[in-house]
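Technical annex B. To support the medicinal chemistry partners, we prepared a structural model of the target in complex with thymidine-5'-phosphate, based solely on the information shown next.
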Amino acid sequence: MSKKPVIVFEGIEGSGKTHHLNKISKYLKKRKLSFIKIREPGGSLNSEKIRKLILNKKSNFNKNTDLLLYLASRSENIDLLRKYYKKRIILIDRFIDSTISYQHYGMGVNLNLIKNINNHILSNFKVSFTFLNLVNHKNMIKRLNLRKSTNRYDNFKKNFYNKVQKGFIKLSNKNKKKYQIINSNLDIKLNEKLVLKKIEKLIR
Ligand code: TMP
Protein backbone atom coordinates (compact mmCIF):
# COMPACT_ATOMS: atom_id res chain seq x y z
CA MET A 1 0.00 0.00 0.00
CA SER A 2 1.30 3.46 -0.87
CA LYS A 3 1.82 6.21 1.70
CA LYS A 4 -0.67 9.08 1.98
CA PRO A 5 1.35 12.24 2.53
CA VAL A 6 0.16 15.85 2.50
CA ILE A 7 2.18 17.56 -0.24
CA VAL A 8 2.16 21.33 -0.71
CA PHE A 9 3.32 23.36 -3.72
CA GLU A 10 4.49 26.87 -2.81
CA GLY A 11 6.06 29.85 -4.49
CA ILE A 12 5.34 33.35 -5.71
CA GLU A 13 3.39 34.24 -8.86
CA GLY A 14 4.71 32.62 -12.03
CA SER A 15 6.94 30.19 -10.14
CA GLY A 16 5.35 27.13 -11.78
CA LYS A 17 3.84 25.55 -8.67
CA THR A 18 0.42 24.96 -10.27
CA HIS A 19 2.05 23.48 -13.37
CA HIS A 20 3.90 20.88 -11.30
CA LEU A 21 0.86 20.14 -9.16
CA ASN A 22 -1.22 19.48 -12.28
CA LYS A 23 1.48 17.23 -13.74
CA ILE A 24 1.58 15.21 -10.53
CA SER A 25 -2.18 14.87 -10.34
CA LYS A 26 -2.19 13.48 -13.92
CA TYR A 27 0.52 11.04 -12.94
CA LEU A 28 -1.41 9.85 -9.86
CA LYS A 29 -4.58 9.46 -11.93
CA LYS A 30 -2.68 7.37 -14.47
CA ARG A 31 -1.41 5.16 -11.69
CA LYS A 32 -4.96 4.94 -10.28
CA LEU A 33 -3.82 6.21 -6.89
CA SER A 34 -6.53 7.96 -4.90
CA PHE A 35 -5.76 11.55 -4.02
CA ILE A 36 -7.43 14.89 -3.45
CA LYS A 37 -6.25 18.21 -4.81
CA ILE A 38 -7.17 21.64 -3.50
CA ARG A 39 -5.94 25.19 -3.89
CA GLU A 40 -5.85 28.00 -1.37
CA PRO A 41 -7.55 30.31 -1.18
CA GLY A 42 -10.32 28.15 -2.60
CA GLY A 43 -10.72 24.41 -2.81
CA SER A 44 -14.15 23.88 -1.32
CA LEU A 45 -17.40 25.63 -2.25
CA ASN A 46 -17.33 28.20 0.56
CA SER A 47 -13.62 28.72 0.28
CA GLU A 48 -13.96 29.51 -3.45
CA LYS A 49 -16.53 32.18 -2.50
CA ILE A 50 -13.99 33.75 -0.14
CA ARG A 51 -11.29 33.50 -2.85
CA LYS A 52 -13.43 35.58 -5.22
CA LEU A 53 -13.86 38.22 -2.56
CA ILE A 54 -10.15 38.50 -1.63
CA LEU A 55 -8.69 38.40 -5.12
CA ASN A 56 -11.23 40.58 -6.88
CA LYS A 57 -9.38 43.59 -8.30
CA LYS A 58 -12.10 45.88 -6.94
CA SER A 59 -11.51 44.72 -3.34
CA ASN A 60 -9.30 46.88 -1.15
CA PHE A 61 -9.21 45.18 2.24
CA ASN A 62 -6.52 46.10 4.74
CA LYS A 63 -3.77 43.59 5.57
CA ASN A 64 -5.49 42.21 8.70
CA THR A 65 -8.75 41.67 6.83
CA ASP A 66 -6.80 39.89 4.07
CA LEU A 67 -5.18 37.63 6.67
CA LEU A 68 -8.51 36.81 8.26
CA LEU A 69 -10.05 36.06 4.88
CA TYR A 70 -7.20 33.75 3.87
CA LEU A 71 -7.56 31.96 7.19
CA ALA A 72 -11.34 31.88 6.83
CA SER A 73 -10.89 30.19 3.48
CA ARG A 74 -8.57 27.63 5.14
CA SER A 75 -11.07 27.10 7.92
CA GLU A 76 -13.68 26.20 5.29
CA ASN A 77 -11.32 23.52 3.90
CA ILE A 78 -10.37 21.82 7.11
CA ASP A 79 -13.29 19.37 7.27
CA LEU A 80 -12.43 18.09 3.80
CA LEU A 81 -8.72 17.90 4.64
CA ARG A 82 -9.38 16.06 7.90
CA LYS A 83 -11.72 13.63 6.18
CA TYR A 84 -8.94 12.43 3.87
CA TYR A 85 -5.94 13.01 6.17
CA LYS A 86 -3.70 9.91 6.01
CA LYS A 87 -6.39 8.11 3.96
CA ARG A 88 -5.58 9.67 0.59
CA ILE A 89 -2.64 11.54 -0.85
CA ILE A 90 -3.43 15.26 -0.46
CA LEU A 91 -2.01 17.83 -2.90
CA ILE A 92 -2.36 21.50 -1.94
CA ASP A 93 -1.64 24.53 -4.11
CA ARG A 94 -0.47 27.02 -1.41
CA PHE A 95 -0.95 26.58 2.32
CA ILE A 96 0.45 27.92 5.63
CA ASP A 97 3.79 29.04 4.17
CA SER A 98 1.94 31.35 1.77
CA THR A 99 0.16 33.00 4.69
CA ILE A 100 3.40 33.55 6.61
CA SER A 101 5.32 34.69 3.52
CA TYR A 102 2.72 37.04 2.04
CA GLN A 103 0.98 38.37 5.16
CA HIS A 104 3.95 38.44 7.56
CA TYR A 105 7.11 38.81 5.45
CA GLY A 106 5.39 40.72 2.66
CA MET A 107 2.86 42.85 4.51
CA GLY A 108 4.16 42.91 8.07
CA VAL A 109 1.23 41.27 9.87
CA ASN A 110 2.15 39.95 13.32
CA LEU A 111 3.61 36.45 13.05
CA ASN A 112 2.17 35.14 16.32
CA LEU A 113 -1.31 36.20 15.31
CA ILE A 114 -0.96 34.15 12.10
CA LYS A 115 0.50 31.15 13.93
CA ASN A 116 -2.12 31.19 16.67
CA ILE A 117 -5.12 31.24 14.36
CA ASN A 118 -3.49 28.75 12.00
CA ASN A 119 -2.76 26.30 14.81
CA HIS A 120 -6.27 26.69 16.10
CA ILE A 121 -7.77 25.87 12.69
CA LEU A 122 -5.41 23.04 11.79
CA SER A 123 -4.66 21.50 15.19
CA ASN A 124 -3.03 18.12 14.39
CA PHE A 125 -3.24 18.35 10.56
CA LYS A 126 0.38 18.43 9.39
CA VAL A 127 2.10 18.99 6.04
CA SER A 128 4.45 16.13 5.11
CA PHE A 129 6.46 17.79 2.34
CA THR A 130 6.68 21.06 0.39
CA PHE A 131 7.95 21.85 -3.10
CA LEU A 132 9.14 25.44 -3.02
CA ASN A 133 9.29 26.92 -6.52
CA LEU A 134 11.60 29.91 -6.97
CA VAL A 135 11.58 32.37 -9.85
CA ASN A 136 13.44 35.56 -10.72
CA HIS A 137 11.54 38.80 -11.25
CA LYS A 138 12.07 38.89 -15.03
CA ASN A 139 10.57 35.43 -15.54
CA MET A 140 7.80 36.12 -13.08
CA ILE A 141 6.68 39.20 -15.07
CA LYS A 142 7.07 37.33 -18.37
CA ARG A 143 4.78 34.55 -17.13
CA LEU A 144 2.23 36.92 -15.59
CA ASN A 145 2.01 38.73 -18.93
CA LEU A 146 1.02 35.47 -20.60
CA ARG A 147 -1.98 34.99 -18.29
CA LYS A 148 -5.46 35.58 -19.66
CA SER A 149 -6.59 37.13 -16.40
CA THR A 150 -4.77 38.48 -13.37
CA ASN A 151 -5.98 39.13 -9.82
CA ARG A 152 -5.54 41.69 -7.05
CA TYR A 153 -2.35 39.99 -5.78
CA ASP A 154 -0.64 39.97 -9.20
CA ASN A 155 0.20 43.66 -9.28
CA PHE A 156 2.42 44.39 -6.30
CA LYS A 157 5.83 46.02 -6.67
CA LYS A 158 9.01 44.00 -7.27
CA ASN A 159 10.16 44.62 -3.70
CA PHE A 160 7.04 42.97 -2.29
CA TYR A 161 7.57 39.72 -4.22
CA ASN A 162 11.26 39.79 -3.23
CA LYS A 163 10.29 39.95 0.43
CA VAL A 164 7.71 37.19 0.01
CA GLN A 165 10.14 34.88 -1.81
CA LYS A 166 12.81 35.48 0.83
CA GLY A 167 10.16 34.61 3.43
CA PHE A 168 9.47 31.30 1.71
CA ILE A 169 13.20 30.54 1.65
CA LYS A 170 13.56 31.36 5.37
CA LEU A 171 10.75 28.93 6.19
CA SER A 172 12.30 26.17 4.08
CA ASN A 173 15.69 26.69 5.75
CA LYS A 174 14.16 25.94 9.13
CA ASN A 175 13.36 22.35 8.13
CA LYS A 176 15.36 21.50 5.02
CA LYS A 177 14.42 17.79 5.02
CA LYS A 178 10.79 18.66 4.42
CA TYR A 179 11.39 20.91 1.42
CA GLN A 180 12.56 20.52 -2.14
CA ILE A 181 13.60 23.74 -3.82
CA ILE A 182 12.71 23.94 -7.51
CA ASN A 183 14.58 26.57 -9.50
CA SER A 184 11.92 27.43 -12.00
CA ASN A 185 14.27 29.61 -14.04
CA LEU A 186 15.77 26.33 -15.28
CA ASP A 187 14.42 23.84 -17.78
CA ILE A 188 10.82 22.91 -16.96
CA LYS A 189 11.14 19.31 -18.19
CA LEU A 190 14.13 18.70 -15.90
CA ASN A 191 12.15 20.15 -13.02
CA GLU A 192 9.18 17.92 -13.82
CA LYS A 193 11.49 14.91 -13.56
CA LEU A 194 12.90 16.16 -10.26
CA VAL A 195 9.43 16.62 -8.77
CA LEU A 196 8.22 13.24 -10.02
CA LYS A 197 11.24 11.42 -8.59
CA LYS A 198 10.62 12.96 -5.20
CA ILE A 199 6.88 12.22 -5.32
CA GLU A 200 7.63 8.57 -6.08
CA LYS A 201 9.77 8.43 -2.96
CA LEU A 202 7.14 10.19 -0.86
CA ILE A 203 4.32 7.81 -1.76
CA ARG A 204 6.31 4.58 -1.87
P1 TMP B 1 -2.92 31.92 -6.90
O1 TMP B 1 -3.77 30.87 -6.29
O2 TMP B 1 -3.32 32.25 -8.27
O3 TMP B 1 -1.48 31.64 -6.75
O4 TMP B 1 -3.23 33.30 -6.13
C1 TMP B 1 -3.50 33.36 -4.81
C2 TMP B 1 -2.90 34.63 -4.22
O5 TMP B 1 -3.20 34.63 -2.83
C3 TMP B 1 -1.39 34.71 -4.33
O6 TMP B 1 -1.01 36.00 -4.68
C4 TMP B 1 -0.91 34.45 -2.93
C5 TMP B 1 -2.03 34.92 -2.07
N1 TMP B 1 -2.13 34.23 -0.76
C6 TMP B 1 -1.82 34.95 0.38
O7 TMP B 1 -1.45 36.12 0.29
N2 TMP B 1 -1.95 34.34 1.59
C7 TMP B 1 -2.36 33.04 1.71
O8 TMP B 1 -2.46 32.52 2.83
C8 TMP B 1 -2.66 32.30 0.52
C9 TMP B 1 -3.11 30.89 0.62
C10 TMP B 1 -2.53 32.95 -0.69
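Notes passed to the chemistry partners:
The chain has a mean pLDDT of 97.
The longest strand covers residues 6-11.
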